[in-house]
């Protein structure tokens, strides 16, 4: 398929710049099993889950990965930390008038000194000069800014520290939020448990590459960025138990899909525990091995994520749903509304 097949016209006015007043206050567009769409409110999700089902969330925690500093020469520098390597070193994108060379010292937020060690393609390896008792992560958390996506055209504020983070976030490492999870509050999670529906977790540390556009016309030629994932044995056991009881696996967000499907793909289609990296690219024609239903937000035109949704729901159903969402003025992207995606028969294994 071609990248242009996944284009749709999106008015800028539909791009959510701020979160809904309440986490569960968003709308929910449902792609029904027959391919039709229904307009709902997010709490209506409870009507679609059953006691034998399980919901799998991504428990990554967004770090305040955007840092501002200056070279000793005075030039301004902006960092977007991509990955923490150890207590002292990180991989980071750097924006400045001239790319810093190895050995360059940079002062961040007038508090922290870092040294550029080297460069690999678009990423720089940087070492923090650490005061006693500090780590790179602790310093980033002390003075960094929340890395709001590029389509949110404002500086981060105090509210973003909590709202651009899921209520169940646990493991620091993401530079973008697993946004489908932003709709859940503790009350909603309790109601899910009260139905008898089980909840499990995976970890995928979302990288800045999630916003990288597809630049080739033939999508089969696109190469995904690599991200760190972890699927623990207890999550595998929960999913196997769910399947044995005839229940469905709801993936909360495309990152949960990519984690589960990667762990299964790496073991000849059988889900097993896995810790490592993945660059899985799910497009129409993919045979889903684990995931039955997806909860997600609305994604960018021509993005890898709308391609993933199309792989589950079917191309026509997905594009029809997106056109409907535009017509009905749903809010798009990270702080926007949600979509519940049931599989097309031809897309479900």
From TrEMBL:
GO terms for biological process: tRNA queuosine(34) biosynthetic process. It is found in: Cytoplasm. It comes from the Bacteria. Keywords: Cytoplasm, Queuosine biosynthesis, S-adenosyl-L-methionine, Transferase. Its main location: cytoplasm. Pathway: tRNA modification; tRNA-queuosine biosynthesis. It catalyses: 7-aminomethyl-7-carbaguanosine(34) in tRNA + S-adenosyl-L-methionine = epoxyqueuosine(34) in tRNA + adenine + L-methionine + 2 H(+). One of its GO terms (cellular component) is cytoplasm. Its EC number is 2.4.99.17. One of its GO terms (molecular function) is S-adenosylmethionine:tRNA ribosyltransferase-isomerase activity. It is an enzyme of class 2 (transferase). SUPFAM superfamilies: QueA-like. Pfam families: Queuosine_synth. Transfers and isomerizes the ribose moiety from AdoMet to the 7-aminomethyl group of 7-deazaguanine (preQ1-tRNA) to give epoxyqueuosine (oQ-tRNA). Monomer. Belongs to the QueA family. NCBIfam families: PRK00147.1 (NF001140), queA (TIGR00113). This is S-adenosylmethionine:tRNA ribosyltransferase-isomerase. The lineage of its organism: Bacteria, Pseudomonadati, Pseudomonadota, Gammaproteobacteria, Thiotrichales. The gene is queA.
């Amino acid at each position: 398929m071609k990248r242009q097949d996944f284009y749709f016209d999106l008015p800028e006015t539909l791009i959510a710049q701020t979160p809904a007043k309440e986490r569960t206050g968003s709308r929910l567009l449902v792609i029904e099993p027959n391919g039709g769409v229904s307009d709902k409110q997010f709490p209506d999700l409870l009507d679609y889950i059953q006691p034998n089902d399980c919901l799998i969330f991504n428990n990554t925690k967004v770090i305040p990965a955007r840092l501002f500093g200056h070279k000793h020469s005075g030039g301004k520098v902006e960092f977007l930390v991509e990955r923490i390597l150890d207590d002292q070193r990180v991989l980071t994108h750097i924006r400045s008038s001239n790319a810093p060379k190895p050995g360059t010292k940079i002062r961040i937020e007038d508090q922290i000194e870092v040294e550029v060690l080297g460069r690999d393609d678009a990423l720089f390896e940087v070492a923090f000069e650490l005061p006693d008792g500090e780590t790179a992560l602790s310093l980033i958390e002390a003075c960094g800014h929340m890395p709001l996506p590029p389509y949110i055209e404002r500086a981060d504020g105090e509210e973003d520290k909590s709202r651009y983070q899921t209520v169940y976030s646990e493991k620091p490492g993401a530079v973008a939020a697993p946004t489908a999870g932003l709709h859940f509050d503790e009350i909603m999670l309790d109601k899910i448990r009260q139905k008898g529906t089980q909840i499990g977790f995976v970890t995928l540390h979302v990288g800045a590459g999630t916003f990288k556009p597809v630049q080739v016309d033939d999508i089969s030629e696109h190469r995904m960025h690599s991200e760190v994932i972890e699927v623990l044995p207890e999550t595998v056991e929960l999913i196997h138990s769910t399947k044995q009881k005839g229940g469905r696996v709801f993936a909360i967000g495309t990152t949960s899909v990519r984690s589960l499907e990667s762990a299964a793909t790496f073991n000849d289609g059988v889900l097993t525990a896995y810790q490592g990296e993945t660059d899985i690219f799910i497009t129409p024609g993919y045979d889903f091995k684990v995931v039955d239903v997806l909860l997600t937000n609305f994604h960018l035109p021509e993005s890898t994520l709308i391609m993933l949704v199309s792989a589950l729901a079917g191309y026509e159903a997905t594009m029809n749903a997106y056109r409907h969402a535009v017509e009905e003025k749903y809010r798009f992207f990270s702080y926007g509304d949600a979509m519940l995606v049931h599989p097309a028969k031809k897309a479900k294994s």
